[in-house]
Amino acid sequence: MRAILTAAFPGKPDGTVTEKIADYFQRHLLPLADYVLDIHAGGRTLDFLPLAAIHILNDATQQSRCEATMRAFGVPYSMRMLELDSVSLYDSAAEEAGKVFVSTELGGSSSTAKAPASRSAACMVFSHMRASSKRMW
């Protein structure tokens, strides 16, 4: 069975390698972060329009912080998603810990990091870190 790290949360300290990594993220790295960014590209087979996405959350303050971070990413498209099956997911673990979580899709199709999209992602991450003086994982 092939384990997917983003679906192995909260993990197990005595589990498989993937579960151990998830446990380490859950217990050691997430508590240090204020923001969690999940940056994707479509790879060789998909070509995504640059977008940033967040989940619809019950906590209005956390939702507002996620919205602001999604807009700050500066990509042409954004999306709000209602997570229907959030069990064992990294994004759910981050949100349950009160973190700002934003996911992105930035290009693809033979070039996993097209120059404009990758520059946009890098610029946003570093400028947001400078402006907020926060840590991201």
Concise overview:
The protein is of the alpha/beta class and 137 residues long. It contains four helices and four strands. The chain has helices at 17-29, 60-72, 90-96, 115-132; strands spanning 35-40, 47-55, 77-81, 100-108.
Primary descriptors:
137 residues, alpha/beta, 4-stranded mixed β-sheet, 4 helices, 4 strands, 37% helix, globular
Q: Could you characterize what this model shows?
A:
With 137 residues, the chain is an alpha/beta fold. The protein has two domains: 1-32, no CATH class; 34-132, no CATH class. The chain is 37% helix and 21% strand. The chain contains four helices and four strands. A four-stranded mixed β-sheet has the order 1-4-2-3, sandwiched between helices. Strand 2 (47-55), helix 2 (60-72) and strand 3 form a beta-alpha-beta unit. The protein is globular. It starts with 16 loop residues before the first helix and ends in a 5-residue tail after the last helix. The relative contact order is 0.23.
Write the layout of secondary structure elements.
Layout: H1 17-29, E1 35-40, E2 47-55, H2 60-72, E3 77-81, H3 90-96, E4 100-108, H4 115-132
Parallel strand pairs: 1-4, 2-3
Antiparallel strand pairs: 2-4
Percent of residues in β-strands: 15-25%
Q: Strand count, sense and closure of the main sheet? A: 4 strands, mixed
Strand and helix order: HEEHEHEH
Number of helices: 4
Outline: globular
Class from secondary-structure proportions = alpha/beta
Residues in helix, %: 25-40%
The span between the termini is 27 Å
Radius of gyration: 15 Å
- As laid out across the biggest beta sheet, the strand order is 1-4-2-3
Kindly give the count of domains. Answer: 2
Total beta strands: 4
Given as residue ranges, the uncertain stretches (5+ residues, pLDDT < 50) are none
- Give the rounded overall mean pLDDT: 83
